[in-house]
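Friendly challenge for the regulars: who can give me the C-alpha coordinates for this chain first? No prize, just bragging rights.
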Amino acid sequence: HSRIDPSGVPLAKPRVALSAASPRADYRAVGFPLQSLTRNAVLVFCSLALSSQRISAQEIDLRTYDYSMVDSAAIALQVPSNTSSTELAALITRGLDKDHERFRAIFIWVAHNIEYKWGSYGSDPDKILKRKKAVCEGYASLLTSLCNAAGIECRTINGFAKSFADLHAELDLSKPNHAWNAVKLQGKWYVTDVTWAAGGYDLKNRKFFREYNEVYFLP
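First reply, four minutes later:
Bragging rights claimed.
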Protein backbone atom coordinates (compact mmCIF):
# COMPACT_ATOMS: atom_id res chain seq x y z
CA HIS A 1 0.00 0.00 0.00
CA SER A 2 1.07 3.60 -0.53
CA ARG A 3 2.63 5.45 2.39
CA ILE A 4 1.56 9.02 3.34
CA ASP A 5 4.08 11.52 4.71
CA PRO A 6 3.03 14.26 7.20
CA SER A 7 2.24 16.64 4.31
CA GLY A 8 -0.30 14.21 2.85
CA VAL A 9 1.81 13.31 -0.24
CA PRO A 10 1.76 9.59 -1.10
CA LEU A 11 5.20 7.99 -0.99
CA ALA A 12 6.33 5.10 -3.14
CA LYS A 13 7.37 1.91 -1.40
CA PRO A 14 11.13 1.56 -0.83
CA ARG A 15 12.91 -0.53 -3.46
CA VAL A 16 16.33 -2.13 -3.13
CA ALA A 17 17.85 -3.54 -6.32
CA LEU A 18 20.65 -6.07 -5.89
CA SER A 19 22.84 -7.16 -8.79
CA ALA A 20 23.84 -10.81 -8.47
CA ALA A 21 26.29 -10.50 -11.34
CA SER A 22 28.45 -7.97 -9.56
CA PRO A 23 30.20 -8.18 -6.19
CA ARG A 24 28.78 -4.73 -5.43
CA ALA A 25 25.16 -4.18 -4.49
CA ASP A 26 23.31 -1.46 -6.38
CA TYR A 27 20.89 0.33 -4.06
CA ARG A 28 18.13 2.56 -5.36
CA ALA A 29 15.65 4.12 -2.93
CA VAL A 30 12.67 5.70 -4.64
CA GLY A 31 10.49 8.25 -2.80
CA PHE A 32 12.17 7.46 0.52
CA PRO A 33 12.67 10.67 2.63
CA LEU A 34 14.22 9.35 5.85
CA GLN A 35 12.88 12.24 7.93
CA SER A 36 9.34 10.96 7.39
CA LEU A 37 10.13 7.56 8.88
CA THR A 38 10.08 6.45 12.45
CA ARG A 39 13.37 5.64 14.17
CA ASN A 40 12.63 1.91 14.10
CA ALA A 41 11.91 1.96 10.37
CA VAL A 42 15.23 3.69 9.70
CA LEU A 43 17.09 1.12 11.77
CA VAL A 44 15.39 -1.75 9.94
CA PHE A 45 16.29 -0.26 6.56
CA CYS A 46 19.92 0.32 7.58
CA SER A 47 20.20 -3.23 8.90
CA LEU A 48 18.82 -4.57 5.62
CA ALA A 49 21.32 -2.55 3.60
CA LEU A 50 24.30 -3.66 5.69
CA SER A 51 23.18 -7.28 5.64
CA SER A 52 22.76 -7.17 1.86
CA GLN A 53 26.26 -5.74 1.47
CA ARG A 54 27.76 -8.61 3.44
CA ILE A 55 25.89 -11.21 1.38
CA SER A 56 26.79 -9.54 -1.91
CA ALA A 57 30.48 -9.31 -1.00
CA GLN A 58 30.60 -13.09 -0.65
CA GLU A 59 29.14 -13.73 -4.10
CA ILE A 60 32.24 -13.80 -6.28
CA ASP A 61 31.81 -14.23 -10.02
CA LEU A 62 34.13 -17.18 -10.56
CA ARG A 63 34.23 -16.65 -14.32
CA THR A 64 35.64 -13.12 -14.09
CA TYR A 65 37.78 -13.52 -10.96
CA ASP A 66 41.45 -12.60 -11.43
CA TYR A 67 43.33 -15.92 -11.33
CA SER A 68 46.55 -14.60 -12.89
CA MET A 69 48.76 -15.29 -9.85
CA VAL A 70 47.21 -18.72 -9.31
CA ASP A 71 47.68 -19.57 -12.99
CA SER A 72 51.32 -18.48 -13.06
CA ALA A 73 52.21 -20.61 -10.05
CA ALA A 74 50.37 -23.67 -11.39
CA ILE A 75 51.97 -23.44 -14.85
CA ALA A 76 55.46 -22.99 -13.39
CA LEU A 77 55.14 -25.95 -11.01
CA GLN A 78 57.40 -28.86 -11.93
CA VAL A 79 56.90 -32.22 -10.24
CA PRO A 80 58.74 -35.58 -10.46
CA SER A 81 57.08 -38.25 -12.59
CA ASN A 82 56.66 -40.54 -9.57
CA THR A 83 54.55 -38.00 -7.64
CA SER A 84 51.21 -39.46 -6.53
CA SER A 85 47.93 -37.67 -7.11
CA THR A 86 47.59 -37.01 -3.37
CA GLU A 87 51.07 -35.47 -3.18
CA LEU A 88 50.46 -33.45 -6.34
CA ALA A 89 47.21 -32.03 -5.00
CA ALA A 90 49.04 -30.76 -1.91
CA LEU A 91 51.79 -29.17 -4.04
CA ILE A 92 49.42 -27.48 -6.47
CA THR A 93 47.15 -26.00 -3.80
CA ARG A 94 49.81 -25.04 -1.25
CA GLY A 95 49.11 -21.58 0.20
CA LEU A 96 45.62 -21.33 -1.31
CA ASP A 97 42.76 -21.14 1.19
CA LYS A 98 39.79 -20.49 -1.13
CA ASP A 99 38.12 -23.52 -2.70
CA HIS A 100 37.73 -21.86 -6.12
CA GLU A 101 41.43 -20.86 -6.20
CA ARG A 102 42.49 -24.40 -5.28
CA PHE A 103 40.27 -25.77 -8.02
CA ARG A 104 41.59 -23.26 -10.54
CA ALA A 105 45.19 -24.23 -9.76
CA ILE A 106 44.40 -27.93 -10.24
CA PHE A 107 42.46 -27.28 -13.44
CA ILE A 108 45.25 -25.17 -14.95
CA TRP A 109 47.96 -27.69 -14.01
CA VAL A 110 46.09 -30.59 -15.62
CA ALA A 111 45.27 -28.58 -18.76
CA HIS A 112 48.93 -27.59 -19.20
CA ASN A 113 50.62 -30.88 -18.32
CA ILE A 114 48.51 -33.75 -19.66
CA GLU A 115 48.63 -34.53 -23.38
CA TYR A 116 45.60 -35.87 -25.20
CA LYS A 117 46.75 -39.07 -26.82
CA TRP A 118 44.44 -41.20 -28.94
CA GLY A 119 44.13 -44.66 -27.46
CA SER A 120 43.21 -46.32 -24.20
CA TYR A 121 45.13 -45.17 -21.14
CA GLY A 122 42.62 -46.05 -18.46
CA SER A 123 41.52 -43.78 -15.67
CA ASP A 124 43.99 -44.53 -12.88
CA PRO A 125 45.21 -41.07 -11.74
CA ASP A 126 48.70 -42.18 -10.70
CA LYS A 127 49.31 -43.99 -14.01
CA ILE A 128 48.13 -40.96 -15.94
CA LEU A 129 50.55 -38.76 -13.99
CA LYS A 130 53.46 -41.04 -14.92
CA ARG A 131 52.61 -41.08 -18.62
CA LYS A 132 51.30 -37.50 -18.79
CA LYS A 133 48.92 -38.81 -21.47
CA ALA A 134 45.18 -39.49 -21.41
CA VAL A 135 41.89 -39.28 -23.25
CA CYS A 136 38.85 -37.51 -21.82
CA GLU A 137 38.15 -40.27 -19.30
CA GLY A 138 41.65 -39.94 -17.89
CA TYR A 139 41.54 -36.13 -17.78
CA ALA A 140 38.24 -36.18 -15.88
CA SER A 141 39.35 -38.94 -13.52
CA LEU A 142 42.59 -37.14 -12.69
CA LEU A 143 40.74 -33.87 -12.04
CA THR A 144 38.31 -35.67 -9.72
CA SER A 145 41.14 -37.36 -7.81
CA LEU A 146 43.17 -34.17 -7.34
CA CYS A 147 40.12 -32.15 -6.27
CA ASN A 148 38.96 -34.74 -3.75
CA ALA A 149 42.48 -34.94 -2.31
CA ALA A 150 42.38 -31.14 -1.90
CA GLY A 151 39.01 -31.24 -0.12
CA ILE A 152 36.97 -30.09 -3.12
CA GLU A 153 33.84 -32.01 -4.04
CA CYS A 154 34.18 -33.08 -7.66
CA ARG A 155 32.60 -35.82 -9.76
CA THR A 156 33.32 -37.43 -13.12
CA ILE A 157 30.44 -37.37 -15.60
CA ASN A 158 30.21 -39.72 -18.57
CA GLY A 159 27.98 -38.54 -21.36
CA PHE A 160 27.70 -37.54 -24.99
CA ALA A 161 29.32 -34.78 -26.99
CA LYS A 162 29.62 -33.68 -30.61
CA SER A 163 32.45 -31.95 -32.39
CA PHE A 164 31.87 -29.39 -35.12
CA ALA A 165 32.70 -32.12 -37.66
CA ASP A 166 29.75 -34.29 -36.62
CA LEU A 167 27.42 -31.56 -35.42
CA HIS A 168 24.54 -32.73 -37.63
CA ALA A 169 25.25 -36.44 -37.40
CA GLU A 170 23.12 -38.75 -35.30
CA LEU A 171 24.75 -39.74 -32.03
CA ASP A 172 25.42 -43.35 -31.20
CA LEU A 173 23.78 -43.63 -27.79
CA SER A 174 24.91 -47.20 -27.12
CA LYS A 175 27.68 -45.92 -24.84
CA PRO A 176 29.04 -42.51 -23.73
CA ASN A 177 31.67 -40.91 -25.94
CA HIS A 178 32.98 -38.21 -23.62
CA ALA A 179 33.74 -37.46 -19.97
CA TRP A 180 33.87 -34.20 -18.03
CA ASN A 181 33.35 -33.02 -14.45
CA ALA A 182 30.98 -31.36 -12.03
CA VAL A 183 32.60 -29.39 -9.21
CA LYS A 184 31.05 -27.77 -6.15
CA LEU A 185 32.40 -24.29 -5.40
CA GLN A 186 30.98 -21.81 -2.89
CA GLY A 187 28.02 -24.12 -2.36
CA LYS A 188 27.06 -24.27 -6.06
CA TRP A 189 27.62 -26.94 -8.72
CA TYR A 190 29.38 -26.07 -11.98
CA VAL A 191 30.23 -28.13 -15.04
CA THR A 192 33.80 -28.02 -16.31
CA ASP A 193 35.74 -29.73 -19.11
CA VAL A 194 39.51 -29.84 -18.69
CA THR A 195 39.99 -32.02 -21.80
CA TRP A 196 38.56 -29.42 -24.14
CA ALA A 197 40.25 -26.62 -22.21
CA ALA A 198 43.67 -28.22 -22.77
CA GLY A 199 43.67 -27.89 -26.56
CA GLY A 200 42.54 -29.72 -29.67
CA TYR A 201 43.20 -32.86 -31.66
CA ASP A 202 44.12 -33.01 -35.32
CA LEU A 203 42.21 -36.10 -36.48
CA LYS A 204 43.96 -36.19 -39.86
CA ASN A 205 47.46 -36.29 -38.40
CA ARG A 206 46.38 -37.84 -35.10
CA LYS A 207 48.22 -35.16 -33.19
CA PHE A 208 47.32 -33.15 -30.12
CA PHE A 209 47.96 -29.42 -30.11
CA ARG A 210 48.06 -27.55 -26.82
CA GLU A 211 45.94 -24.41 -26.90
CA TYR A 212 44.33 -23.47 -23.61
CA ASN A 213 40.69 -22.39 -23.93
CA GLU A 214 39.20 -20.47 -21.00
CA VAL A 215 35.64 -21.12 -22.22
CA TYR A 216 35.66 -24.62 -20.74
CA PHE A 217 36.80 -23.61 -17.25
CA LEU A 218 33.24 -23.07 -15.95
CA PRO A 219 31.11 -22.94 -19.12
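The mean pLDDT is 79. The first strand starts at residue 3 and ends at 4. Your move, everyone else.
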